[in-house]
Amino acid sequence: MQISTHELKSKIIESLKLQDITPEQIDDDAPLFGTGLGLDSIDALELVVLLEKEYGIVIKDIEEGRPAFRSVRTLADFIAVKRPQ
Amino acid sequence: MSEISVIATSTATAADLPTARLGQRFGRLDLQSQLALLAVASLNINFDELARDRIGICLAASAGSLSTDVNFWNGRNGVGGPSPTLFAYTLPSAAVGEVAIHFRLTGPNLCFVGDNKIILSEAADMLRRGEADACVCIFCEAVTPECGQIISVPPTATARAFFLKNDSEGTGTLAEFDRDIKALSAIIFPTQSAG
Amino acid sequence: MREPEVVIAGCGVICAVGCGVEPLLAALQNNAIGLRASEKFNEARFQSNIVGAASRSFDIDDPAWFLAVEALQQACIAAGKTLATIPAERIGLVLSTTKANIEALERVSDNRSCSDEAKRHLRADLFAADLAAAHGALGPVQTASVACVSGLVAISQGAKLIQRGAADAVLVVGVDCLSEFVVSGFTALKALDPQGCSPFDRDRCGLSPGEAGAALVLMRADLFAQPAIAIRAFGGSNDANHLTGPSRDGSGLALAIRAALHAVKMSPAEIDFVHAHGTGTGYNDAMESLALKTIFGDACPPVSGSKGMLGHTLGAAGVLETICCVLAMQHNFLPGTPRLLNAAEGTPPDLVREPRPGIRLENVLKLNTGFGGMNGALILSHV
Prior knowledge:
By secondary structure, chain B is of the alpha/beta class.
């Protein structure tokens, strides 16, 4: 089942303790890492924790998560496919 | 003999943190790094006027990184396990790193555990030896209640910063470099609270 | 650094290859590997159980004190006769550590037994004060905690104290212990190689934690009779890039190396050997290779790293690895790089895999880098 990108963005903001930014200000298709939101390698690890904590998805190998972490939309799609029913 | 001058001094406390506007990632920093960064920002130095690789940072943390160490250790059994973010801050020098990253300061760094007496004398020595032309000095006291209970120290959350420069027209000079920072700032900047 | 010259009057060490300088020398000459599988970390929640453990019980509540005192006692005995002639008020101490006696935090958290002294040594400054008192150092005491560059900073600080006349001798001691705290932290960062680290290897994928106590007695050169090895210069810098990842182009470390060379008016061509930080992580070893290329161009001297032997000993690393350099200089050999099989592309052209005897090392460059963008470069020379 698809999850709302708005909800996912709220969780990202909360988990990464981002300040002065609202879900509306994050573009669904903008890059999360490098440019765009400018997240880094520690944030990637925290997103792995978020996936487990909020959606029950366990990522064994960080490389598995890499394509999913490209943008909010790819992450939402990944969660829809991978989350335990 | 060139003078080493104190250009500016500042204080940051926990009460100042909620209104701090130091970028989107400020929330990720641990308490000690937030206090240090805010204190340095409050010095209001225009670092653009200086060569970044000639600006040093000298920090003393009264309790090392123990407050963050306790947070990391206490949180280890949460879902997802020990926090990677918190672990990155379980070093007193993490605060130095954050100041360096934020203001792009690439000069030499010193970081000590213990009281504040050391940082002015070491920073002055750094300048006298020509290793840097200016130095940001920071004294941090970041003791959370949980940490304070373990090491039997009263909780506190403050940082004091000084900006030292070689050969310049500052508002005060350091004749002796072993003085206590609180006493020194009271002498040099009597209108600031000794807090 | 300016006059007076500061020399090393004695060394002491306890680490993964044994207790004492002689076992370390033998290990260096034989390219031994001190990393071993540890039962203590043989659980799913730790990314690797391959560590560099010293020979000590894991049931003690103050391992930091145990390792530090062992190293200090060895160093002071080695410096013995000359150290005894120096008044206590003229002997300082600089401690280098990232986590001090973190064991005490684990015990207190779990309500396990923990002595007051062990708890006291959670605070690195009090730990340093106690070490100084126990070893007759009534001069200045400092506690350096600069991530993995702590050891080199501590050595530099010790030298500075002597050079500005605040002390005639300084005991420099670096210590960090294996702990669940540290291993679980590196696990959270996914920074460990499950098979054990392989510095500069094309298949490297992480570091191996280690522990050690390592100590040097620094002394004013004019007080020390024999030919000796001097601390010539230290250069430090910050990458100002990322908290746990080094600057991609190695420019920060290159800056530190340049500062050290400049301080002692030495050209890169005068360096005979580089002892690298070489943790075995993808980023570090690549960055270090770039920094060396920047400084030395195509004329890089031989390079090796000891973390495949000893593990990454954090706050002890700078002191322990400097002692490796001292031994190489005293016994005229190039140490190898244990656990390096196939050098990665872009690594220095003369990466020493196996030890090479019969080589005089006049000037040696020791490098370390650490979290928070820290970079350090130390130059040692025969005098």
